[in-house]
Amino acid sequence: MSEHAGNDSWVVDETHDGAALAAFVRERLGGRPWKAVKELIGTGKVFVGGTRVTDDGHRVHTGDHVALRIRAPRPRDERAEVQIVFEDTQVVVIDKPAGVSSVPYEQHETGTAMDLIRDAWRRLKRPATEAALHVVHRIDKDTSGLLVFAKTKKAERELAMQFRAHTVARTYTCVAHGGVASGRIESRLVDDRGDGLRGSARFANQGKTAVTHVRALRPLQGATLCEVQLETGKTHQIRIHLAERGHPLVGERVYVRDYEGAGGRVIASPRLLLHAATLGFAHPVTRASVSFESSLPDDFQSVLRRLER
Fold first, then answer.
1. Structural domains of the chain, with CATH
2. Which of 162, 225, 229, 237 has the greatest CB tally within 10 Å of its CB?
């Protein structure tokens, strides 16, 4: 840990626009060792615009207020607080925190949403027969909100059919850069648009059709609060569609390259401001219509309040 024993605050000037947070803080602390500076950031002692940032590679921009708060407590592990919203013998619906993968994407990845559900079952001393979980859809690791898993093969088949038929009702809340206009966005998405990123195809015979409905809710400082409804559900669909319209999501780390290249003013955020707010489907056995809502998490609301000032 750094030997620094007090609190400091700084405002980012033009010469440090776009600098990594670790580099900026290190310079302000007189060239402290990289390890010590990264530990300060990683243990939640550094705040940007009043919001804790634990990513040492986070980019700061002119006018950002950066604060070092030595006595700030370590951030709680939100993964341990995953909420089971609904569960019966067929399905389990959870409220997934940002930063947690829906399913393992690497061979040894742990701490996924599936792991957290099983952990909750173990704490409740459920029988081992309830360990079965079947994937019917996913939300991005950086996205928070509602996620459903099937607990039986029958439920898996029935829910998968609903997702393929686009009869599952899903809405997301997001904050996107700039003044966003309500409307319908349609394109054909490909895994590589030519520069290594997913994106919209240039030719009609490429990719898969993706349709996104955007409703602007209210303007913010340099951004817009939006409600988004998915007609289809392709990987990173909302992030891509809004970024390609010149409105990358606040907290975006991937689909922001074109915006930054065009001189766009990137708003600092410790997380992607995208939240799966509602989920509705026909129960796979009873056929009854079920729907769920999730309120915005504290870390999302913290940035939102800052942009409403």
1. 8-68 (3.10.290.10), 78-308 (3.30.2350.10)
2. 237
